[in-house]
Fold this protein.
Amino acid sequence: MVGPIYIIAISLGTAFSLGFFKKANRNISFGLMFFAMAFVTFISGQWLYAFLSHQQETIQIFTAGFKPPFSISLQMGFHEAVFLTMINVLGLLSAIYLFDHLKEKGANMMMVFMLLFMGLNVVVMTRDIFNLFVFLEISSITLVGLIILEKKQDAISSGFKYLIASGIISQILLIGIIAAYYYGGSLFINDMVDSNLLFVKGGSVAVFLILIAVVLELKPFPANGWALDVYQSATPGIGAIVSGAVATTSLFILYKLLPIGGDAWLLPIGITGVISFLGSNFLGINQKNANRILGYSSIGQVGLLMIIMSLSKDLGDKFEFVFFSILISHYLAKAGLFWISGIINKDEIGQWNIIKNKPGLIVLTGVFMLTLLGLPPFPSFYGKWELIMNLAHSGNFTWIAIILLGSFFEAIYLLRWFGKTLMNNENSEELIVKFHKIFPAVISSFLILMFSFLTARWSGLMSVKYFIPFAIALLLFALDFLPVFIKNIMAIATVSWYSYVLIYQTYIPENDILRIIFGFIFLIGAILLLFPGFTFKGKRRGFYPLVILMFSGLAGLIEARTTFQFFFAWEMMTLASYLLIIRGKNAKKTSFSYILFSMAGAFMMFIGFGLAYFETGSISLNALADVLIYANWVYILVAVGFLVKIASLGVHIWLPDSYTEADDDVTPMISSILVKSGVFGLIILMLSMSLKNAASSNIPYILGWIGALSALIGNMLAIYQEDVKKLVAYSSIGIMGYILFGLSMMSHLGWLTAISYSIVHFLYKALLFLAVAGIIYRTKTRNIYEMGGLIKRMPLSFISVLIGIITLAGMPPLVGFAGKWMFYNAVILKGWYFQGAIVFFSGIVAFLYCFKLIHNIFLGPIKDNHRKLKETSVWWLIPQFVLIIGIMIISVYPKIILEPIGLYLSMYFPGEGLVWAGTTASTSLGYWDATQIMMVFAGMFGVIFIILFLMSRKVQVVEQFNIVFQAERPERPETTHYAHNMYAPYNKALGFLAAPFITNSWEFIYESFHAIGDQIRKFYTGNGQTYALHIVMYVVAFYLFINGGF
Amino acid sequence: MMEKLNIQNIGLTVGILVILVGLWGLLTQKNLIKIVIGFALFDTGTHILMVSIGYIKYRTAPILDEAVDIRNAAKLVVDPIPQALVLTAIVIGLGITALMLSYVLKMYQNKKSLEINNYKDLKW
Amino acid sequence: MKIVYVLLGLFIIINYGLLQAGVLRRITARVGKRIGVPFYQPYIDLIKNYAIRSQFSHGVMFYLGPVFRLSGGVGIFLFMPLIFGNEIFSNYSMAGDLILIMYFMFIGMLGMALGAGEGGHPYSIIGITRGLSQFTTVEVPFTLAVISIAIQYQTLSITEIVAAQQGGIMHWTLMTNPLATGAAMLSFLGMMMYAPFNVVNAPQENPLGPPTEFHGTFLGMLQTNRVILGVMEAILFMNLFFGGATNWGILFIKAFLIYFYPVFVGAVFPRYRIDQSIRWFLYLPTALGILAIIFI
Amino acid sequence: MVKNAFIFLILIGVAMILVNLFAGFTGNVDLGQIANHYVANGPAEVGSANIVTAVVVTYRGFDTLGEVTILFLSAAIVGFFLKIENTDNTERNLKYTSEILNTASQVLVPIMILFGVYVFINGHLSPGGGFQGGAIIASGLVLMFIAQPKKEIGHKLINIIESISGVGFVLMGLAGVLFAGGFLDNNVIGLGKFGTLFSAGAIPIIYIFVGLKVGSELTGIALSLKENQNEA
């Protein structure tokens, strides 16, 4: 194998000899440089391979042929090899990326460029601290050189700031080194570690100076104004190097020198990390400039890695896995984002939407950002999981809270940025993408995917079968060029196969009622709701992979047996649904609030799982039942995650707009299927935590109130909506509150109601949304007062909506009444009278919007521009009528679902429940015979109809007189239309209940975050001298802190 | 008192003072050139510290010519390592100072101003 | 065989309802210092409407609206036990309990609303929105009262509730649970839609309110329904709060008195605006209902 | 003013740190173990009379390589940075220099260059070495620039010297790897007789390269700065 010393020799030799070619053709010099760097990369890669494949010993290279400490020695071990490979690969890619810059600037810059990486290599390898100082100087000088690659004014001034700052830092390091030499008698790092520096008077100060210099090299918040300016002003290619290679190297220095400080230094490092992580991510929220945001995010990530390093003791043997998975994700993703930012070449993130019509770039951006956020399936997800879980295991919940909080801040700005990227843009300027600029980003995204797989396998948490969905999604992504029709068929086939395997082959044999039911809702429902996809024209790029991911995420929820699998599936489903919603035309803002709420909820759930793991030491879902001491905490934390998903009162504000703005066939999916994931989660949670242990028995009571109030407010708000989709969306909030209430009653009947009702809700909510979507598909408007009289044009849709609302309103004889009836009994038996009364009231309020829905769309006079409309497409109608059939069957014979669920529940709530005599179901209170009612009703209706028919001969049909407007107003005539603001008196009487105070308070919180951040970041005055002062202050403060000064 | 006042301690004191003076200049002066000078002073102070650390009383430079006999050289010469280090440090300082000056020159050419407060284009 | 008795019961109820309506109209006329119509006037109206030949329809829903409406009324009749202890006249009450009847009222309203809605006249839709809005809050005290008596008697079956009240006036809910009775009777005012809560289908002004859209046979059906509905709601309250009836005579008397009470109130009080009535039901009646649950 | 007072406080803090740093300082009485090794075995191992040189060029030769690289880099960056974009710098009217300086420089410059060469050739015997020598040479050339501003010296020559010496240095280092103990081991061509000019193995050769390189680099920096000065 080629010795590591050749890395230096070759780089230097090439750099020096480039001088010969200064005037010669620049391609030659670039070729030389590139070849040299490639060879260097090859050397490091070869060593890495050696360490990975066979048991390669760590080797020492002595310069000048003398043993250390008498001469400088380099070390090549596994960690060195990893870092060297990372650095050199990045160097190679950057060289490709900066090809045109370097070629334009000539040989000087090429030397500087390759010597930067030479310097970093030596810094990683060397074991002599003064030598480390020298080559650190080399790398910082070269960096200063590269900053002014483009001689922009602000680049120059920021380069000057950087010079001052790094000059001070290196002087501090130098003083520390020389003092350490005096007290320790050696410059050889191993000797320094062994020596008793810390205990000599003054020696500890020397160590302090050395380590603080290293910390400052990591650009800790707040002593990092200079670094941010560099990130912002240098060409993004350089930014990629700084955050990818230089930061990585500095981390390695810390890792190498930390032993000198000993364990006493772990905590201070950790605190520094916390300040950086929280501080810079918090300030990042206010940023508008793309490169500066990336800078903030890099500093935050470095802070996180410092935290991890300081917690190495607690992480134990997981330390390497956590550290490297997070480091590598950050290194690849951040570099990739910088490169993309260089391609787009816009400072304001608002202008990033010029990549709107470049799907490739959008995918790359998405991959990188989601990797940074640690969402599945990207490597950092596993890292974060192991990190949190191991911290939980050793009970460090402060750290967990901090880490998740910081990650949340980061999520805020990265996701908002992603949203802006997808904004539809007016300016039609075309973006030219050079191959050599996009190539590195593509490579790094491939590397990310590769590492996702590897980390997943290494973590040992994932079996191969979890990758099937991703494989299918990737396949669909590869086949994206196909027309919608074929892809839709493929998607349906996939889901059908999935449901066949899961439901038919697994659950039905196991007779696992709960999983059968939800498998039915999730997967069969998916098949139905995919049908409307046939109506879409064109390609629908990227739609189907996401759909597959979402539904496989849902299936994963049912499948999950451990908290990890559950969380994985949960995050995946959330992510996919977010990306589906954001596809909507105006869904950017609302999908942002959706993902923010979901992530906050997911983090809570995460902490909850961690807490459970801390107590029980097991990640099995059933182990939740054994949580006793922290039961309340675990319960609340996990429940919040689910409450967000079912949009309970307080965390509901994301729902209406998200449903409204999503594509018309996505809305039924999320509204009737996705929300059920929250219900399923609650059921799992309550089964294990409310039933099996009594420790947390009082929480269901609270949940019950929340459910009742959400039911009331949801329906109240639904009344006043003029947007038809929004109306149905708000009603979802109400119904979900209703289900939550049923579950939290913790009684047989309550659960029977809730579970059967989630089936029913799936049926009619899908029905309503499909019908509405089908109508919108024809009328091209969502405003309900712009419709009317469509019954003559779309009779079939009318039937769907009629059935839908009768079921929703719970009128006999349809199955909705079953819910109401069981509910009365449950409430009275349980004794929750007032909550019950509220829920009934909201149930009656539901009539108002039901009627509004059906009347304003179908009845009254028809609008002139709708006279020619046809019935909606058959692809919308097929699923509707399947659903109607389902509703009818259950209505005539509800026993078929109620009895098995009852049997299943009687495992948990023995004794109570419905007693079946024939078709009559009875409780201790009342009785009810759906079949008989249906027959009586049908008979009566038929008789009366016949009577009318006989009595009313020669009926002549006349048109309605078009007197719907009370008086025309020139502007907004619809305001005088009777269907506009239909329930004005109701609003006058009870409107206060619908006041948007929750939305306002959330917005207030969000705004005040911005305001605070805006004030804080003022101390980055932009004056290099102030930044220098920050550094000195930081050193002094840190010193005082270490020595208990304060 | 007198024995405290040996060359080493004098060297250290002077070094520290020079460092402080340099920092003061670096942090308070508004003129770019003066800031660079402040940095150079800081640098020099460090070098003084380094040299005086290696000094040993009544000893000579570590050059083994006829003045020093090789057999018990170890008893006669001062520590060569800090001198070697300071040599390197000086050159590095020289390089950085040169860079700083060229930056100042360029900034001056662009804005015709040496006032550091005029270079706050990037902030927050 | 049962069907025959059910139809017989229905026949009795309709006739009784018609007579009652006529008598009450006369009484209110006298209160207003007027002669008033003959007591058999409702018969005349009904026959006239059914006899009208010309029929106009605006479409399917317009045609089916009255059918729904009447089905609602007849449905309540079908599921309501009339005479306590009399298997024959307990109708189909074995198929469902109090809840069923409460929710059956909605079907009629929905049918009415849809039918009138397709008429396309803005006034009818305005009337419907008013009616629904008022109805939501009218239901609140009634629901509370129902819960209260369900707690009291531990059952939702009307037959059993009546059974529990047998044995003298002191056993009536009126006595054993006055608060619930009060709440329910107040909401009864709203259900009967006499003044002050009759802005929905204000009879004096023409043309306003859903019924004005209909005529002929359709209107006849609506009238039939109104007759049945009125009596049946009275009977419902009788069963729930006034000890039910053991024979037709008691039924007629109690029903008449219960029905007379909203008419009386309506004759005395002026009319509420819709938003006022909505709020009104949430104040006193609801308060009573809550108390009824607390002090049961 | 408040700001300055605040800075003063901070500096007091710094002073405190530094004082604490040397709190444990009690003057040396004897060489540390490493220094002792250098002084005792230096002559035998390296064969250089100037122990500092031995340390600089051999024991810690790797630092020196880095140091040279730093100079090289700053020269390159300054050269790139201060490159005159507009080539028509003819109208730059430079200060007139006095006759005395002019004449004196013609005498002095060659001598200074010669002295510089002497210094770095004897680096292993006497005080001095590559850097010092290079610096002297450079100052000689700077004197020449001052004396004759009009005189143009092409960067090309400087670059060539720079590159040759740099590559030479690296090659010497590699020679160490191939024929001796390790990178930059000076024991490649025999140590020769201690204390004579041709001794200390590769040290004189390396010092020649270093001298040339440093000289050319400093000259380069000075030259770029000079070309940029333009006081009219």
